[in-house]
Amino acid sequence: MTTDPHAKPSWRTRAVTALLRAGGQRKLLATPEGVHAEIAKRDRRDTEVRPPASLRKRATVTREDLDGWPVYRITPNDVTTDVAVVFLHGGGFFREIVGAHWAFAARLAAAVPAECVVPIYPLVPHGRAAEMVPTTAAILARTIERRGTGSTVVMGNSAGGGLALAAAQTLRDRGGPQPSRLVLISPWLDMTMSDPAQAEIEPTDPLHLRPGLVEIGRRYADRLAPEDPRVSPLFGRLEGLPPITAFAGTREIFVTDTRTLARRAADAHVPIDYHEAPNLPHNYALFPAPEGRAAREIMVDACRAPLSAGRR
């Protein structure tokens, strides 16, 4: 679904977009060397990742370790949850989960209401597709086993969206249970960055440049080919996957791949609910703005949908 192509972003979205552009990510993604320097700086910090303390005031937060990854469960207080959402954060596989991700997970858990499962996966160069995708699939399978096929959603933004799709494909190929729905927010689905239409969009994207993204993809792929579906799930089969809800903005270079996903899902007879927002940037669906709030309402309904259908 695409709304009016001439629609202007709200002032809040314009403000967030300006902050993103001023943040300097485009500069570090201009060259492979910029990526290397950012990874080295990140590794020197070597800080433990944990939810902010404020989160525990409105939710119960527990931790367990699965296959060596910390996995946090966020459950709203004093509410029965019939749905589990496995949320895979973004950050381009080279940046850690941030406060906005935790806040989104907590608000989603309260709104559905749902138990939100947040794996903390390793980042490149320590995190590689050959290990990360099977581990994510195992965490998803365990959640489905615990909560049920009809009440488990897997959701991811940006790099986490690609990881979510790859994990679902892996479960399908193994004959394992599928989640009830995939929710993909500005997903990064093709590490080759080879769609020719991206060259036209790139100057308007406030966050991304292809040279750095290709280098991240190379490190994430490691010994695998960039076209391997574990690395770039857009190259994998879509048949046998659950319904998909997807979001992308026309001012992000990943929109080309989300469009391809929508076409291929329809061809594979996979129900697809695609929301393409004109003149909006990457991850707009998470912004504290009217466009973000509207997108999050759709996400909440998508998480509730399988449960509602089962009660009819």
TrEMBL record:
* E.C. numbers: 3.1.1.83
EC class of this enzyme? Answer: hydrolase
Please name the InterPro entries in this protein's record.
AB_hydrolase_3, AB_hydrolase_fold, GDXG_lipolytic_enzyme
Pfam families named among the record's database cross-references: Abhydrolase_3 (PF07859)
The gene from which this protein is expressed is mlhB_6
Q: List the SUPFAM superfamilies hit by this protein, alphabetically.
A: alpha/beta-Hydrolases
Give the record's keywords alphabetically: Hydrolase
Does the keyword section mention Hydrolase?
A: yes
| Protein source organism | Nocardia otitidiscaviarum
Q: Which PANTHER family match?
A: AB HYDROLASE SUPERFAMILY PROTEIN C4A8.06C (PTHR48081), ALPHA_BETA HYDROLASE FOLD-3 DOMAIN-CONTAINING PROTEIN-RELATED (PTHR48081:SF8)
Domain Alpha/beta hydrolase fold-3, chain residue ranges per copy: 85-285
The molecule here is called: Monoterpene epsilon-lactone hydrolase
Asked if the Swiss-Prot or TrEMBL record annotates the protein with the keyword Hydrolase, the reply is yes
Source species, domain of life: Bacteria
Molecular function (GO) terms for this protein are: hydrolase activity
